[in-house]
Amino acid sequence: MDKVKEMLASAGGSIVLAIVVSVVGFLLIKCVMRALRKLKSLEKLDQTMTRFVLNFINWLLYIMLIIGVIDILGVPMAQVIAVLASAGVAVGLALQGALSNLAGGILLMILRPFNVGDYVDASGASGVVHAINLFYTVIITIDNKRITVPNGSLMNSNVVDYTAEPLRRVDLVFSCAKSEKPSEIQKCILDAVNTSQYALKDPAPFAHISGGTNEAMEFTVRAWCKTENYWDLYFELNQSIVEAFAAKGVQTPALRVVNDKA
Questions:
Q1: Is residue 91 very low, low, confident or very high in pLDDT (cuts 50, 70, 90)?
Q2: Distance in Å from the first CA to the final CA of the chain
Q3: Across the strands, what pairs with 173?
Q4: How confident is the model at residue 229 (pLDDT cuts 50, 70, 90)?
Q5: What is the percentage of the chain residues whose pLDDT exceeds 90?
Q6: 105-161 classified as CATH 2.60.40.10
Q7: DSSP secondary structure string, 145-200?
Q8: pTM higher than 0.90, yes or no?
Q9: Distances from the Cα of 127 to the Cαs of 79, 148, 161, 168, in angstroms?
Q10: Do domains 105-161 and 167-256 have the same CATH topology?
């Protein structure tokens, strides 16, 4: 106990200074990060890159604070580096998955397969990308569930981005009795499509026989729209074409969806 008291007495000033530096450094980091979030220069970057840059700076500042506190306590930096190197090897072996996610997060920032706000289908999760962090990506489903996906698995899987392109195509299949005239059914469908405010004239809508059975003919309908209007056109065509069939007295119309991906 006497030796402990002597050590504390000799190192007391360093310990107090280290505590003060830790508290002040913690508060300064909070202030710096708050100020960075208000910078107008960061507003020029998109939301994905802004969050990544802020997270990286936050981690870097804390690492610098920890190194500074260790130096104040009088621990030789050569020994600290040696210990960190040894610990890094052990931690690296134990946290291979976490390091894979970190590498995946960095690659996501560089390759940019999708951005915050995009609707994606990846690693078994479908929804709007809410945040891309260093280790994981947060996806919000259409029924408002939060899914956390490791970045490592995202970089090793197929990613479908439904909102990356400005235009999308709605594909539907309708059927009618084989006794109907194909040209009249085609005209009926195209007339219904052309009345939609969401369907684009270029590329032109498409309606042709694509198959059938002994009792029915199947017509494939394709119409292009702006990406943000996909679901509006999708549901509108379902209703307007069925109503057009009923108005024309088309026999046994039945709707079957072949593409209900978001």
A1: low
A2: 69
A3: 220, 256
A4: very high
A5: 37
A6: no
A7: -EEEEEHHHHHTS-EEETTSSSEEEEEEEEEEETTS-HHHHHHHHHHHHHT-SSS-
A8: no
A9: 48, 11, 10, 17
A10: no
What would the pLDDT profile of 74-83 be if each residue is shown by its tens digit? 767 666 667 6
Q: Which of 260, 253, 261, 255 is nearest to 173 (CA)?
A: 255
pLDDT over 50 at 255, yes or no: no
Q: Write the CATH number of the domain with boundaries 167-256.
A: 3.30.70.100
- Residue 192's contacts (CB-CB under 8 Å, 6 or more residues apart) are 237, 240, 241, 243, 244
Over residues 1-18, the pLDDT tens digits come to: 666 555 555 566 677 778
What is the rounded CA–CA span in Å between residue 7 and residue 238? Answer: 81
Two structure tokens written together for 113: 């397969």
What is the Cα–Cα distance from 213 to 217, expressed in whole angstroms?
Answer: 6
- Measure the CA–CA gap between 252 and 213, rounded to whole angstroms: 13
Query: Domain residue spans in the chain?
Result: 2-94, 105-161, 167-256
The most distant pair of C-alpha atoms in the chain lies apart, rounded to whole Å, by 105
Give the pLDDT confidence score for residue 171 in this predicted structure. Answer: 95
